[in-house]
Specification:
The complex is a heterodimer of chains A (about 130) and B (about 140). By secondary structure, chain A is α/β, with parallel strands linked by helices. Chain A contains five helices and seven strands. Chain A has one domain: Hypothetical Protein Ychn, Chain: A (3-Layer(aba) Sandwich), CATH 3.40.1260.10. Chain B has a single domain, classed as DsrEFH-like (Hypothetical Protein Ychn, Chain: A, 3-Layer(aba) Sandwich). In chain B, strands 4-3-2-1-5 form a five-stranded parallel sheet, with helices on both faces. The chains are: A alpha/beta (about 130), B alpha/beta (about 140).
Protein backbone atom coordinates (compact mmCIF):
# COMPACT_ATOMS: atom_id res chain seq x y z
CA UNK A 1 0.00 0.00 0.00
CA UNK A 2 1.37 3.45 -0.84
CA UNK A 3 1.79 5.99 1.92
CA UNK A 4 -1.23 8.26 2.13
CA UNK A 5 -0.10 11.84 1.52
CA UNK A 6 -1.96 15.04 2.26
CA UNK A 7 -0.87 17.92 0.04
CA UNK A 8 -1.63 21.45 1.17
CA UNK A 9 -1.40 23.69 -1.88
CA UNK A 10 -1.03 27.38 -1.03
CA UNK A 11 1.19 28.84 -3.77
CA UNK A 12 -1.16 29.86 -6.55
CA UNK A 13 -0.81 30.77 -10.21
CA UNK A 14 2.98 30.50 -10.07
CA UNK A 15 4.22 30.02 -13.64
CA UNK A 16 0.87 28.60 -14.75
CA UNK A 17 1.05 30.52 -18.03
CA UNK A 18 4.48 29.13 -18.86
CA UNK A 19 3.63 25.60 -17.76
CA UNK A 20 -0.01 25.67 -18.90
CA UNK A 21 -1.02 24.15 -15.57
CA UNK A 22 -0.11 24.32 -11.88
CA UNK A 23 3.15 22.49 -11.29
CA UNK A 24 1.98 20.87 -8.05
CA UNK A 25 -1.43 19.70 -9.23
CA UNK A 26 0.34 18.33 -12.30
CA UNK A 27 2.92 16.55 -10.15
CA UNK A 28 0.26 14.93 -8.00
CA UNK A 29 -1.65 13.72 -11.05
CA UNK A 30 1.52 12.29 -12.54
CA UNK A 31 2.48 10.57 -9.26
CA UNK A 32 -0.98 9.08 -8.95
CA UNK A 33 -0.40 7.33 -12.28
CA UNK A 34 2.72 5.85 -10.65
CA UNK A 35 0.64 4.48 -7.76
CA UNK A 36 0.72 7.30 -5.21
CA UNK A 37 -2.29 8.02 -3.00
CA UNK A 38 -2.82 11.74 -2.65
CA UNK A 39 -5.34 14.14 -1.17
CA UNK A 40 -5.32 17.89 -1.84
CA UNK A 41 -6.21 20.81 0.39
CA UNK A 42 -6.43 24.17 -1.38
CA UNK A 43 -5.75 27.02 1.00
CA UNK A 44 -4.84 30.71 0.81
CA UNK A 45 -4.87 32.12 -2.70
CA UNK A 46 -4.98 28.61 -4.14
CA UNK A 47 -8.67 28.30 -3.20
CA UNK A 48 -9.29 30.29 -6.37
CA UNK A 49 -8.24 27.27 -8.42
CA UNK A 50 -11.64 25.75 -7.63
CA UNK A 51 -13.68 28.66 -8.99
CA UNK A 52 -15.61 27.50 -12.06
CA UNK A 53 -15.44 29.28 -15.37
CA UNK A 54 -12.08 30.95 -14.96
CA UNK A 55 -9.64 31.32 -17.80
CA UNK A 56 -7.20 33.63 -19.45
CA UNK A 57 -6.31 34.46 -23.03
CA UNK A 58 -3.06 32.95 -24.17
CA UNK A 59 0.05 35.09 -24.20
CA UNK A 60 0.88 36.76 -27.50
CA UNK A 61 4.32 38.05 -28.45
CA UNK A 62 4.37 39.38 -31.99
CA UNK A 63 3.54 36.50 -34.30
CA UNK A 64 3.93 33.93 -31.51
CA UNK A 65 0.67 32.93 -29.84
CA UNK A 66 -0.01 30.60 -26.93
CA UNK A 67 -2.75 28.16 -27.92
CA UNK A 68 -3.18 26.10 -24.76
CA UNK A 69 -3.52 28.63 -21.93
CA UNK A 70 -4.14 27.11 -18.49
CA UNK A 71 -7.60 26.43 -17.10
CA UNK A 72 -7.25 25.79 -13.41
CA UNK A 73 -10.87 24.81 -12.80
CA UNK A 74 -10.51 22.15 -15.49
CA UNK A 75 -7.42 20.78 -13.74
CA UNK A 76 -9.20 20.64 -10.36
CA UNK A 77 -12.12 18.82 -11.97
CA UNK A 78 -9.66 16.40 -13.56
CA UNK A 79 -8.27 15.53 -10.12
CA UNK A 80 -11.71 15.02 -8.61
CA UNK A 81 -13.61 13.32 -11.39
CA UNK A 82 -11.06 11.45 -13.48
CA UNK A 83 -8.37 10.65 -10.93
CA UNK A 84 -10.59 10.35 -7.85
CA UNK A 85 -8.19 12.49 -5.81
CA UNK A 86 -10.12 14.16 -2.96
CA UNK A 87 -9.85 17.96 -3.09
CA UNK A 88 -10.71 20.03 -0.03
CA UNK A 89 -11.01 23.82 0.05
CA UNK A 90 -10.51 25.78 3.27
CA UNK A 91 -13.84 27.50 3.88
CA UNK A 92 -12.48 30.51 5.74
CA UNK A 93 -10.03 31.23 2.93
CA UNK A 94 -12.93 31.25 0.48
CA UNK A 95 -14.92 33.60 2.72
CA UNK A 96 -11.93 35.93 3.13
CA UNK A 97 -11.91 36.34 -0.65
CA UNK A 98 -15.65 36.72 -1.07
CA UNK A 99 -16.04 33.45 -2.94
CA UNK A 100 -19.31 31.58 -2.48
CA UNK A 101 -19.65 27.81 -2.41
CA UNK A 102 -21.86 27.96 -5.48
CA UNK A 103 -19.01 29.40 -7.53
CA UNK A 104 -16.88 26.27 -7.18
CA UNK A 105 -16.57 23.31 -9.50
CA UNK A 106 -18.59 20.29 -8.38
CA UNK A 107 -16.97 17.62 -6.25
CA UNK A 108 -14.66 19.76 -4.11
CA UNK A 109 -15.29 19.56 -0.37
CA UNK A 110 -15.27 22.46 2.08
CA UNK A 111 -13.22 22.13 5.23
CA UNK A 112 -12.98 24.46 8.24
CA UNK A 113 -9.57 25.48 9.58
CA UNK A 114 -10.27 23.82 12.91
CA UNK A 115 -10.77 20.50 11.13
CA UNK A 116 -7.29 20.53 9.62
CA UNK A 117 -5.39 18.96 12.55
CA UNK A 118 -7.78 16.05 12.54
CA UNK A 119 -7.22 15.61 8.82
CA UNK A 120 -3.44 15.69 9.28
CA UNK A 121 -3.71 12.78 11.71
CA UNK A 122 -5.22 10.59 9.00
CA UNK A 123 -2.14 10.79 6.77
CA UNK A 124 1.37 9.36 6.98
CA UNK A 125 2.86 12.28 5.07
CA UNK A 126 1.82 15.93 4.93
CA UNK A 127 3.37 18.21 2.28
CA UNK A 128 2.92 21.97 2.25
CA UNK A 129 3.45 23.41 -1.22
CA UNK B 1 8.70 62.43 -32.43
CA UNK B 2 11.76 60.46 -31.40
CA UNK B 3 11.34 56.88 -30.42
CA UNK B 4 11.23 56.09 -26.74
CA UNK B 5 13.86 53.82 -25.25
CA UNK B 6 12.81 51.45 -22.50
CA UNK B 7 15.07 49.23 -20.43
CA UNK B 8 13.79 46.24 -18.52
CA UNK B 9 15.87 44.16 -16.12
CA UNK B 10 14.65 40.62 -15.50
CA UNK B 11 15.82 38.17 -12.85
CA UNK B 12 13.38 35.28 -12.71
CA UNK B 13 14.25 32.00 -14.40
CA UNK B 14 11.89 30.63 -17.03
CA UNK B 15 9.06 28.34 -15.90
CA UNK B 16 9.21 29.45 -12.25
CA UNK B 17 7.06 32.54 -11.81
CA UNK B 18 4.34 34.71 -13.27
CA UNK B 19 6.68 37.71 -13.45
CA UNK B 20 7.99 36.82 -16.86
CA UNK B 21 4.52 36.57 -18.37
CA UNK B 22 3.89 40.10 -17.14
CA UNK B 23 7.25 41.20 -18.53
CA UNK B 24 6.52 39.73 -21.95
CA UNK B 25 3.13 41.42 -22.03
CA UNK B 26 4.83 44.78 -21.41
CA UNK B 27 7.63 44.05 -23.86
CA UNK B 28 5.14 43.01 -26.53
CA UNK B 29 3.27 46.32 -26.33
CA UNK B 30 6.52 48.26 -26.40
CA UNK B 31 7.67 46.32 -29.45
CA UNK B 32 4.39 46.95 -31.30
CA UNK B 33 4.76 50.68 -30.58
CA UNK B 34 8.20 50.67 -32.15
CA UNK B 35 10.09 51.47 -28.97
CA UNK B 36 13.76 50.78 -28.66
CA UNK B 37 13.94 48.10 -26.02
CA UNK B 38 16.87 47.04 -23.90
CA UNK B 39 16.65 43.90 -21.81
CA UNK B 40 19.21 42.93 -19.20
CA UNK B 41 18.62 39.25 -18.44
CA UNK B 42 20.24 38.69 -15.07
CA UNK B 43 20.64 35.57 -12.89
CA UNK B 44 17.88 33.07 -13.67
CA UNK B 45 16.54 35.20 -16.51
CA UNK B 46 19.77 34.48 -18.37
CA UNK B 47 18.09 31.21 -19.34
CA UNK B 48 15.20 32.86 -21.16
CA UNK B 49 17.00 32.97 -24.49
CA UNK B 50 18.72 29.58 -24.11
CA UNK B 51 18.28 28.12 -27.54
CA UNK B 52 18.15 24.44 -26.60
CA UNK B 53 14.76 24.68 -24.88
CA UNK B 54 12.40 22.17 -26.44
CA UNK B 55 8.69 21.54 -26.31
CA UNK B 56 7.44 18.38 -24.62
CA UNK B 57 4.25 16.33 -24.53
CA UNK B 58 1.99 16.48 -21.50
CA UNK B 59 0.84 13.01 -20.44
CA UNK B 60 -1.29 14.43 -17.62
CA UNK B 61 -3.20 16.50 -20.16
CA UNK B 62 -3.22 13.54 -22.53
CA UNK B 63 -1.61 15.63 -25.27
CA UNK B 64 1.31 14.98 -27.58
CA UNK B 65 3.95 17.59 -28.38
CA UNK B 66 1.91 19.25 -31.11
CA UNK B 67 -1.34 19.27 -29.15
CA UNK B 68 0.25 20.63 -25.97
CA UNK B 69 2.17 23.25 -27.99
CA UNK B 70 4.13 24.09 -24.86
CA UNK B 71 5.50 27.63 -24.71
CA UNK B 72 9.23 28.14 -24.66
CA UNK B 73 10.71 31.44 -23.64
CA UNK B 74 13.27 31.22 -26.42
CA UNK B 75 10.41 31.38 -28.92
CA UNK B 76 8.96 34.37 -27.09
CA UNK B 77 12.31 36.15 -27.19
CA UNK B 78 12.69 35.46 -30.91
CA UNK B 79 9.14 36.68 -31.56
CA UNK B 80 9.81 39.84 -29.58
CA UNK B 81 12.88 40.64 -31.67
CA UNK B 82 10.91 40.08 -34.88
CA UNK B 83 7.95 42.17 -33.70
CA UNK B 84 10.19 45.10 -32.79
CA UNK B 85 11.93 44.99 -36.14
CA UNK B 86 8.58 44.89 -37.92
CA UNK B 87 7.49 48.04 -36.07
CA UNK B 88 10.70 49.89 -36.82
CA UNK B 89 12.09 49.49 -33.32
CA UNK B 90 14.86 47.29 -32.05
CA UNK B 91 15.68 45.06 -29.12
CA UNK B 92 19.10 44.84 -27.52
CA UNK B 93 18.77 41.70 -25.38
CA UNK B 94 21.79 41.13 -23.16
CA UNK B 95 22.33 37.85 -21.34
CA UNK B 96 24.52 38.31 -18.26
CA UNK B 97 27.71 36.46 -19.14
CA UNK B 98 28.61 35.11 -15.73
CA UNK B 99 24.99 34.09 -15.18
CA UNK B 100 24.88 32.02 -18.36
CA UNK B 101 28.26 30.46 -17.60
CA UNK B 102 27.27 29.22 -14.15
CA UNK B 103 24.07 27.77 -15.58
CA UNK B 104 25.58 26.31 -18.74
CA UNK B 105 23.12 28.18 -20.94
CA UNK B 106 25.64 29.90 -23.19
CA UNK B 107 23.82 29.34 -26.48
CA UNK B 108 21.43 32.17 -27.26
CA UNK B 109 18.60 32.99 -29.60
CA UNK B 110 20.19 34.76 -32.59
CA UNK B 111 20.00 38.50 -32.16
CA UNK B 112 20.61 38.39 -28.41
CA UNK B 113 24.10 38.76 -27.00
CA UNK B 114 26.36 38.13 -24.05
CA UNK B 115 27.04 41.10 -21.80
CA UNK B 116 27.75 42.34 -18.31
CA UNK B 117 26.45 44.71 -15.61
CA UNK B 118 28.21 47.49 -17.52
CA UNK B 119 25.62 47.03 -20.26
CA UNK B 120 22.81 47.49 -17.77
CA UNK B 121 24.48 50.68 -16.56
CA UNK B 122 24.76 51.96 -20.12
CA UNK B 123 21.15 51.00 -20.83
CA UNK B 124 19.91 52.89 -17.79
CA UNK B 125 21.91 55.99 -18.72
CA UNK B 126 20.49 56.04 -22.24
CA UNK B 127 16.85 55.18 -21.52
CA UNK B 128 13.72 57.25 -21.10
CA UNK B 129 12.65 54.85 -18.40
CA UNK B 130 13.88 51.74 -16.63
CA UNK B 131 11.76 48.96 -15.17
CA UNK B 132 13.27 46.41 -12.82
CA UNK B 133 11.34 43.19 -12.29
CA UNK B 134 13.30 41.42 -9.56
CA UNK B 135 13.02 37.95 -8.11
CA UNK B 136 11.03 37.94 -4.88
Amino acid sequence: MPKKTLNIVESAYRAVMEEQDDTILWLLAAMQVAGAEHTVVLRGNAVNYAVAGQGVPGLTVGEWKQTQAPKMDRDVLDLVEKRKIPVYVVAEDLADRGIERGELVPGVQLLGRTALPGLFAEYELVAHW
Amino acid sequence: MSRKTLTIALMDPPYESENLTTAFRILEVAARRGYHINVFAYEGAAGLAFVRQTQHPNPVHGKDVAEENHPTTKDQVAALLAAAEQSGGKVDWVNCGMCVDERGVNEFVPGTRRGSPADFHAFAEASDNVLVIPTK
